Amino acid sequence: MRLEPKPAPSLAVTLIYPVAAIAATLVFTSLLVLVAGASPLSVFYLVAKGAAGSQFALLETLTRATPLIFTGLAVAVAFRAKLWNIGAEAQLYIGGVVTVVLGTGALPLAAPVLIPVIMIAAMAAGAALLLGPAFLKTRFGVDEVVTTLLLNFIVLLFVSMLLEGVLKDPMGLGWPQSQKVIAEAQLPRIIQGKRLHYGFVIAIVSAIVVWVIMKKTALGYEMRAVGNNPEGARFVGIPVNKVLMKTAVLSGGLAALAGFSEVSGLKGNLTLDLSPGYGYSGIVVAMLAMLNPVGVIASAIFVAGIFVGADSMSRVAKVPSYIADVMVATSLLTMVVAILLTRFRVRWR
User: 172 pLDDT exceeds 90?
Assistant: First the structure.
């Protein structure tokens, strides 16, 4: 068996394979639901109802999708240039740390100034965290998959140390959590009394900005060129190493915004369970979107809807909510195959 590159696929082909991937995911999940003793149609209906069947459900889905948009964008940007950033989880937590440090009264600024300052600082911290692995890759050829993955554990231990030390809330009854950020550092809610906050709006704007960068700027062209053929890009004069470093800055900054939005917009403080794996789920989101920044919005809402809907479904259908993890993981695998078949033709010898 060998793979032959295809010419530029048509729009129909580009759409058919992702749809087929989703259909294959539903078929495989249906088999597991049958084994669990439930009706697949009933379970899928309950998942959809739990994700968007009411205003509360829809807002919860959008709230859960907010950090996934940021981490999905971070992964999409990095993967487009073949910088394999597996450390979005670490960058998210660093963004949360910076948000707490600056948002608990360290800067006596009004909200219209303080929030952008914290955002920029959080992005700078996330960018700096990814610059290390990017430098090791470009200078010494160190595999960034290993370095970024290991940084996730290092940063989580670092955050744990901070929450048991200098950042620990003295009024937290001994729990490892930080103080609440002040009112001026909190993102307002889009609808009063609901959990959806303006971090979702920032995420949408970020996706549009990233799309413009990728499609309309020289940097975006260079990133795509480096991702498609680094040797060819180097031959025509594109500074590959500089492009990878710029990509790291953008990717790390976007992932850090997820931590900022969760602390400033939703939870108000930093805890060790700030992220239930948003950084890793960002890989799924980016791949489902086929690395398209605007498509990340839809795929993040889709993944968030599965998790929110599965929580509701499990209480009614008595099917474990872990079915959501299976659906997301299977959709990633089938989408990878779909992307492969979109770009290559399989030849059997």
Answer: no
Residue 241 lies in a domain: yes
Q: How far apart are the first and last CA of the chain?
A: 6
For 269, the 3-state DSSP assignment is coil
State the CB neighbour count (10 A cutoff) for residue 228: 12
Residues 6 or more apart whose CB falls under 8 angstroms from that of 149 comprise: 86, 87
233 lies in which domain range?
39-317
- Where residue 219 sits, what CATH number does that domain have? 1.10.3470
| Residue 6 CA: distances (Å) to CA of 15, 135, 252, 318 | 16, 34, 33, 46
Q: Is residue 8 part of a domain?
A: no
**Closest-CA residue to 214 (of 246, 256, 262):** 246
Q: What is the pTM of this model?
A: 0.94
Sign of CA dihedral 260, 264, 266, 271: positive
By the 8 A CB rule, do 275 and 155 touch?
Answer: no
265-322 pLDDT, tens digit per residue, is 999 999 999 999 999 999 999 998 989 999 999 999 999 999 999 988 988 888 888 8
Q: Phi and psi at residue 184, in whole multiples of 5°?
A: -65, -20
**Amino acid identity of 294?**
V
Q: Classify residue 120: in a domain, yes or no.
A: yes
User: Rounded to the nearest 10 degrees, how much is the dihedral formed by the CA atoms of 15, 20, 26, 31?
Assistant: 180
- The answer to whether residue 31 sits within a structural domain is no
8 Å CB contact between 112 and 183 = no
List the helix and strand counts (H, then E) for the chain: 13, 2
Q: Which of 63, 68, 102 is nearest to 254 (CA)?
A: 68
**What is the number of domains present in the chain?**
1
Tokens of 91: 């960058």
Helix orientation angle between 199-216 and 240-261, rounded to the nearest 10 degrees = 170
Q: How far apart are CA 37 and CA 28, in angstroms?
A: 15
